[in-house]
Amino acid sequence: MNKAIVTLSLCMISMLLRAADEESTLAIFEGALKGSIRETSEIARDANRKPMQALGFFGIESNMKVLELSPASGYWSKIIGPSLCSNEGRLVFTVGLSEAFKSGVMTLPGLECTSAINAELTLLNIPKFSFAEADFDLVLTFWNLHNLTEERRNNLNRAVFEALKPGGVYGVIDHTRRHMQPDDRTIGRRLDPVVVIQELTALGFEFEDYSPLHYHPEDDLTQEVGAPGIRGNTDRFTLKFRKP
């Protein structure tokens, strides 16, 4: 067997082993989908939100240290948290943490490894700052950046960049706005993905990939995201950035 064939064989074996590891890791998170802490209304959203595909796209692993920005009512937290907590990982929450979330979600069974930092920050109050912890493998934000002014986005994203390990990933999902569409109240909760890419790469992030997971061609990008018939079915961009 010549050297080229040996090298090719080793590469193929390595790829197969890596794929098997990724499948095994995602199986841990998939188990959380059936967790008793999830509400029926949350389970009903799975078909639309595609949590396993999204987390797989962002490269989540069960032993990671993960930061979730403004987790709202905890849809993603109840999937990610138990999977990390049972596998020597950690989940940290920050920005806009309600008392209901802290007392009603963070205290749920299986979320013992979770904690909160910079809880005084809200989506309406993000000055220049640094997170109280660093060395995160992964930072995730779901439908949050559209709530921020450009200044607040830059303050938050700069802090995220500083808090990530070299090689760490920043995963972003948000409602899509048409590129260069003039601002108005109707599309105020939509965000231009080109602007997001521009702002994050200017801070030093590398734009690594995008996914069409949450593409909804029936959304013409002109309606308010909470409008009847469009709520829950907006076109969303799913972007992956990496800290060099």
Characterise the protein shown here:
The chain has 244 residues and is α/β, with parallel strands linked by helices. The protein has one domain: Rossmann fold (3-Layer(aba) Sandwich). Helices cover 35% and strands 18% of the residues. It is built from 8 helices and 7 strands. The chain has a 7-stranded mixed β-sheet. β1 (65-69), α5 (77-85) and β2 form a beta-alpha-beta unit. α1 (3-32) packs across α5 (77-85). The longest helix is centred in the first third of the chain and has 30 residues, at 3-32. Residues 4-22 have low confidence and may be disordered.
SSE topology sketch:
Layout: H1 3-32, H2 40-43, H3 46-49, H4 51-58, E1 65-69, H5 77-85, E2 90-94, H6 99-104, E3 115-117, E4 136-142, H7 150-163, E5 164-175, H8 193-202, E6 206-211, E7 236-242
Parallel strand pairs: 1-2, 1-4, 2-3, 4-5
Antiparallel strand pairs: 5-7, 6-7
Helix pairs in contact: 1-5
